[in-house]
Amino acid sequence: MKKYNFNAGPSILPREVIENTAKQILDFNGSGLSLAEISHRAKDFQPVVDEAVALIKELLKVPEGYSVLFLGGGASLEFCMIPYNFLIKKAGYLNTGTWAKKALKEAKLFGEAVEVASSADAGYTFYPKDYECPTDLDYLHITTNNTIYGTEIRKEPEVPVRLIGDMSSDIFSRPIDVAKYDCIYAGAQKNLAMAGVTLIIVKDDCLGKAPRQIPTMLDYRTHVEKGSMFNTPPVVPIYCALETLRWIKAQGGVEEMARRAEARAKVLYDEIDRNKLFRGTVEKDSRSLMNICFVMNDEYKDLEKPFFEYATQRGMVGIKGHRSVGGFRASCYNAMPMEGVEALVKCMQDFEKEH
Amino acid sequence: MKKYNFNAGPSILPREVIENTAKQILDFNGSGLSLAEISHRAKDFQPVVDEAVALIKELLKVPEGYSVLFLGGGASLEFCMIPYNFLIKKAGYLNTGTWAKKALKEAKLFGEAVEVASSADAGYTFYPKDYECPTDLDYLHITTNNTIYGTEIRKEPEVPVRLIGDMSSDIFSRPIDVAKYDCIYAGAQKNLAMAGVTLIIVKDDCLGKAPRQIPTMLDYRTHVEKGSMFNTPPVVPIYCALETLRWIKAQGGVEEMARRAEARAKVLYDEIDRNKLFRGTVEKDSRSLMNICFVMNDEYKDLEKPFFEYATQRGMVGIKGHRSVGGFRASCYNAMPMEGVEALVKCMQDFEKEH
User: Do A3 and B32 touch (CB under 8 A)?
Assistant: First the structure.
């Protein structure tokens, strides 16, 4: 039976990315050696990094003056690297969910860090909009997509300060205005690659201004100067990212990814809104196109487990909602075909008919 | 032509590790999903981590009271995590080469950190032995194998303080006395796995004593409490480590790895000592069994490049010495078959006959 991978992350990758990565692990570029055992200093690997960086700059229209890095440790490590490198006097954070809150917590270890707006009181069911943003912030940190709660801001907010964006779960799903950011970071394991590499896009002239000593590995300058090769980078995850980037470009770039994300989300949200059994958990104008959260309507609460089993038997994988929200979450990253969403919708419709 | 991978890292892995990892990337446990796209919370992945941890405890005879962790970021990130977590008043470091020096540099950001002994003046050509170790150290940090200079200490030093060991390039190549260490860490990309994961073995009751606030991701307690699942771990590199650990066990454990390493090193060092063209760069009792460094004798200096080309044409890969030492370095990690060393020795002998 065909399976559809709706996992929130690590998550679905294009089949050709998976196959090409496996192939290079067996024999890298016909060298007789595995991608898993070549030196990162090998002359065949530098072109992998160079091409990946060039594709990111091209796909996201990264302006001059930004560096693109591949680091290890995951986006969670960036939560402390951001204030280490950028917090001078005062930082602002939008509290839009679990990950945003974790990022804010780390910043507080380094100086003044304030919550500029929050949707915590409403169970994170919307993305804050009409808030007052202080003008004296070193940066405003935003989590552009909230994987757990299923909210997303699909456009940079209009604020009088520079942005830092955790885009772990929606990068490459739409065009972004990189020029508004001092730094963008993203764990790879949604729209970019297998887990194990973090993408950083950082404005060079913002670095070196924080009034503290930074451990070498936590200082973005270290990695900018060495082109992500200060220490051994995660070679295979970076190669996997390159394959995904090539795929995105071949499919039509982030504009096409946005078109597909909108089309997928419309089909699924329309069904959630129509189907008597289900309802969405998020205010309509904050709905994520990546993580589509829904629950059983109160009068059908006892059908939650039966529906989960019904859908699982029909090939839907990873649709259980995060434990803090409950219900269901269908993550629809770039590699999710419309066919997968249609299969899920069909499940919902058939299940409705039976109840 | 058969190639022999003498790269210093990332480096040779057993062929079955490579093939099994590639296979799981195509289809993980027959699930229809790729290892690269499954959730780290999937019920199929927890057994991977559990088995890997259990094998490490078994192979290295890890005593009770230690935790085994898989983190991202590489051993270089540990250089700052060690003092963050363990430096209370004063730490000691053996300066045995480039990586040891880098580790000491990071410790100095956090408090008093002293060089207890050094072989820097001798170009790191020996492993320090008869030094006075202060008794008031929180820990003595040692780099058990120096990848660049080719020195190794194959037994824990007799010192009156607790040890912390960077074992990136010789872990699993011999039995170790874990009980003498508060922490052992190792980048995976030599004897364990593809690059992208760091192994940590830490004594639980040593944590939480350092007098400073530690960012969440840099606090070992975070990862101990969550069993390496605080954030998304590097799934594929961890799986690759599991495959290698299974292989080591099947081959006869670290005792057998030690026997093979000694046998390989004897064959190669004997040839270096015998062959009129070459000489070793390291004092005999400090010679590494993992990274075997040698240069052309002075009267044959101009044969360096020709020998490199000669050996490369005959399938030797990655034997160029590190730029700080020059000459040649044949890294002979666990997966290097005796056949590879014999092929290199044959190259050296045939080349000698021609000159």
Answer: yes
Residue ranges of A 251-310 with Cβ closer than 8 A to chain B: none
Q: Please say whether the beta carbons of A185 and A199 come within 8 A.
A: yes
Beta-carbon separation of B10 and A39 below 8 A: yes
User: Cα–Cα distances in Å, from B262 out to A68, B153, B173?
Assistant: 43, 13, 10
Q: Most A CBs within 10 Å: which of B2, B27, B37, as the mutation test of the A interface?
A: B37
* Interface confidence (ipTM) of the complex: 0.97
Summarised one tens digit per residue, pLDDT across range B245-267 is 999 999 999 999 999 999 999 99
Sorted by sequence, the CB contacts under 8 Å of residue A243 that are 6+ apart come out as: A14, A16, A17, A20, A21
Asked if residue B231 belongs to a known ligand binding site, the reply is yes
| CATH class of the domain whose range is B253-354 | alpha beta
| Gyration radius (Cα) of chain A, Å | 21
pLDDT tens readout for residues A103-112 = 999 999 999 9
Among the partner residues B26, B39, B230, nearest to A10 by beta-carbon distance: B39
Domain A15-251 class? Answer: alpha beta
Residues written for chain A: 355
| Residue partners of B285: CB distance under 8 A and separation at least 6 | B126
Is B99 a catalytic site residue?
yes
Domain ranges of chain B: 15-251, 253-354
**Residue A155 burial by Cβ neighbours in a 10 Å radius (0-12, 13-18, 19+):** exposed
Q: Which of B 89-108 lie inside 8 A of A, CB atoms?
A: 102, 105-106
Q: Say how far apart CA B160 and CA B132 lie, in whole Å.
A: 10
Distance from CA of A247 to the nearest CA of B (A): 16
A40 touches chain B (CB under 8 A): yes
B163-196: buried (b, 16+ CB within 10 Å) or exposed (e) per residue?
bbbbbbbbbbbbbbebeebbbbbbbbbbbbbbbb
Regarding pTM above 0.95, the answer is yes
